[in-house]
Write a structure and sequence with these properties.
The protein has about 400 residues and is mainly alpha-helical. It has helices at about 5-20, 25-35, 45-60, 85-100, 105-120, 140-160, 165-175, 200-215, 220-230, 255-270, 275-285, 315-330, 335-350, 380-400, and strands at about 75, 80, 315, 365-370, 380. It has a 3-stranded antiparallel beta sheet. A two-stranded antiparallel ribbon has the order 3-4. It is globular, with a radius of gyration of 20 Å.
């Protein structure tokens, strides 16, 4: 085994060799991103949201499994992936909202196809699998079920009771598998570390949406119990412990964004001021991490002192957090949240191509630059979903 000092000296050579083996499109994307965004104009909300919607349609139509679900990603190295149940679930509400806003029946039909596929793969007890379709082991997972529940609840609200049995089974399964302290521990994903996950407030949000449709159930109580447990993990500076898939000491902005959204949704559901206080503390910590030059750049991983842990941006986490800041602006009228969200959304818009090959046009990269360590060389379906949602809310608020 080579000594560490030797490995460190050889690392640049290995990186160069890895680069040379990449396909031409991946090399071109690396060069483009390494040039930075200073000379790149913002294409604007209208053009980028329309392109991202088209890209999600491409992801559904070109999924390697051709089943009605949405491909997890398009890779510059390996092409289109299989469908991803978890994120297909929460893409459904985006398709429904955009279909209604645009008076576009085709988008609503896409949502139906997604829902029909999800119902067809639900386990009899109500849970849903982790990972992409066909990935092993195929076992029910708390987090994935909660994300799909968001889609099922949106399906019931839009299309009626055809999707209610599946929604009820999923919500009952989640509420019934919760530990006494509110945490979910019995059905972790096999594709991440097994420690507690405070970002499963995003699962609680799924239960809250179901509870809005059927207040007679105890789903809302179960959801709020989990969020109270998660808020108990919060540090005085707003930091959330146990808030990452694999690296809780330096979590992704993606999972911090999940945690923040779930806390804010608990506030909106219950009007308990403790949730607004906790959400504001977390949002304030994230606000302090924005690039001081006003570029809208947010580091992709952060440490407990709210300092950057990496030099790349997780674009998914950026737009999730921007969306949460916009929600806070709606609820409080504090213009700081609006201005910060506009900067972040603008940064991400400048990374989205509105022209070029259909496989990447309108797609949102996992990382900026594209060879960063989250979704490396991939355009992620959930990145496009959160991008559309955040920019749509920005459009709505600034139009006022």
């Amino acid at each position: 085994m080579l000594p560490r000092a030797v490995k460190d000296r050889l690392r640049p050579l290995k990186k160069l060799a890895d680069f040379q083996r990449l396909p031409a499109a991946a090399k071109a994307a690396v060069r483009r991103d390494r040039d930075g965004l200073d000379a790149v104009a913002d294409p604007g909300i209208d053009a980028t949201v329309a392109a991202a919607l088209d890209w999600l349609g491409q992801a559904q139509d070109n999924s390697a499994t051709r089943d009605g679900g949405v491909a997890r990603h398009y890779s510059l190295v390996s092409g289109w992936s299989a469908s991803y149940p978890e994120t297909t679930g929460y893409i459904v509400p985006t398709m429904i909202e955009q279909g209604r806003l645009r008076n576009d029946p085709a988008l609503l039909e896409r949502a139906r196809r997604m829902l029909d596929w999800l119902v067809s793969i639900q386990f009899p007890d109500g849970g849903f699998q982790g990972g992409t379709i066909g990935q092993e082991p195929r076992v029910p997972v708390t987090f994935n079920t909660g994300q799909i529940l968001l889609g099922l609840a949106a399906g019931v609200a839009e299309f009626g009771d055809a999707y209610r049995p599946a929604m009820t089974r999923a919500a009952d399964w989640l509420a019934g598998s919760q530990d006494e302290d509110g945490c979910w521990r019995r059905f972790p994903t096999p594709f991440a570390s097994r420690n507690d996950k405070s970002y499963e407030t995003h699962v609680a949000w799924g239960l809250l949406e179901a509870a809005r449709l059927d207040p007679s159930r105890t789903w809302g109580d179960a959801a709020l119990a989990q969020v109270r447990w998660a808020v108990g993990r919060q540090q005085p500076n707003g930091w959330m412990a146990d808030c990452c898939l694999e690296e809780p000491h330096q979590p992704l902005t993606h999972t911090l964004g999940y945690a923040l959204r779930g806390i804010l949704e608990a506030w909106r559901f219950s009007r308990d001021p403790a949730f607004l206080e906790a959400g504001t503390k977390l949002a304030e910590g994230l606000l302090g991490c924005l690039d001081e030059r006003g570029t809208g750049r947010l580091p992709g991983r952060l440490n407990a002192g709210w300092k950057p842990a990496v030099d790349w941006v997780c674009l998914t986490g950026s737009v999730q957090i921007a969306h949460c800041w916009l929600l806070l602006y709606q609820d409080t009228g504090d213009a700081r949240w609006l201005e910060a969200a506009k900067r972040v959304n603008g940064f991400v818009r400048r990374t989205v191509a509105v022209e070029g090959p259909t496989d990447t046009r309108g797609g949102v990269q996992g990382s900026f630059p594209v060879d960063g360590d989250y979704g490396t060389f991939e355009y992620l379906n959930w990145a496009a979903k959160f991008f559309i949602d955040s920019n749509e809310l920005e459009r709505k608020l600034t139009a006022r």
